[in-house]
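User:
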Amino acid sequence: MKSDIEIAQSTELKEITEIAKDLGLNENDLELYGNYKAKIKFETIEKLKSNKTGKLILVSAITPTPAGEGKTTVTIGLTQAMNKIGKKAIAAIREPSLGPIFGIKGGAAGGGYSQVLPMEDINLHFTGDMHAVTSANNNLAALIDNSIYNGNPLNINPTTITWKRVMDVNDRALRDIVIGLGGKTQGVPREDGFDITPASEIMAILCLSNNIKELKEKIGNITIGYTYKNEPVKVKDMGFEGAITALLKDALKPNLVQTTENTAAFVHGGPFANIAQGTNSIIATKTALKLADYVVTEAGFGFDLGAEKFFDIVCPYGEFCPSAVILVATVRALKHHGGVKKKDLTKPNVEALKKGLVNLGKHLENIRKFGMRSVVAINKFYTDTDEELQIVKDFAIKNGFDASIVEFWEKGGIGGTELAEKVTKLIEDGVCSMKQLYKWDSPVEDKIATIAKEIYGAEKIDFTSDAKKDLRLIKKHGYTKLPICIAKTQKSLSDNPKLLGRPENFLVTVRRILISSGAGFLIPITGDILRMPGLPKHPSAETIDIDEKGNLEGLF
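Assistant: Predicted structure:
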């Protein structure tokens, strides 16, 4: 069997203008990035607003193993499958981050015969969006320190600055640093640190903005720190919102590419779901919805992270009402939750599988809390036995959910036409029944408790003294009505990555609550979650290589 990159390199790509033509667009609607990538112009997006809006399908998953369970592959594969059965469908997914690519997961553009292409470009520098976000974030950081150095006209207390620098790498050495050393000409010494680019508030804002005007307004509302009188300082107080927005002018335009079966796909924006909202940009999804009858999008990690944030944050801001959820489950992940070690996940183990089904059960319960219709997609791996696959399918059906075994990695769209038929039939009436978990105007503590208890299954929530101090600040400055974007480990339903399956009687500890006043949400930091990941002992970078002709290998 060929590797992902071998399949990608052997696929005959269509010119991106041909892909656009199938959507009813012409070359004048595009900004071309070579032959196979393009951005959609703002004037085209405005023109499309009069088009009929398609139906939105969200792909989520059970609690994954560290290697991931193929959620992006299912998203792309389902889009291909829907086109196979005669439906006009587009995928809308996030851009990969260089951190995981060179870290533990390798490439992040789908897999096998269900990929977005050109995968080498998408996985590396693509159209430069990640770099634009990094530049915008770090220019703002430099402007803040420069203002303090040159007289500090806004009376900013350097010890309260909350705006960190970012890089799109996994670099634990940069989590906590001291800047401004070397004498008074080097700036004001203070503690600082780096987050990874997908954790930047700029990334969150980019993905929640409908246009340049809104992007500029949100950037202006970013809180960067506090004065000596403990009053918040925003970017618009400093007058830098125009300059920072200028760096993002092109990054806001959605990226159009294609799948391995030459169907259209939007790949745009890349916030992580364990530390941000975890979904591609609103502007890309809205554009896709005006160009197709169905749009298949995904939310990062498990349903407890990406999907909850999609329903409670992204949908209200984007004015979306999804028609259905596809919940991805794998035999190997369920065996992992049943206590099987990573090295043994490929071995048949019915008892461990049955034990791990409680994790799937909890995610199915959570889908009901949002009033969503759903089909379980059992993503088949070659090591799965028929007995194991049937056990998962029977469990889903017993719990009131239809299920379908898919083979998108090995077969492309044809490997999931049954799933495509089931989901289109499920939502053919066009009725949206989505509910939100909480009301935005509820007390902050109540909103956090609702998510932790209802979605994670926590018994109790504890706020540290720092978190209580943050709560007082939130109430003082009028941020209580913002939605909640909890930063939590993706490895468990709880805030402890070691608690697998369906943990019970556990405590969720809120260490801090960060204010993302520009993006428009609060970020409770739980457990030991980090906004700058580190590299594993054997990172994927060890296998990535390039030959003398410029051909890449090792990106999965």
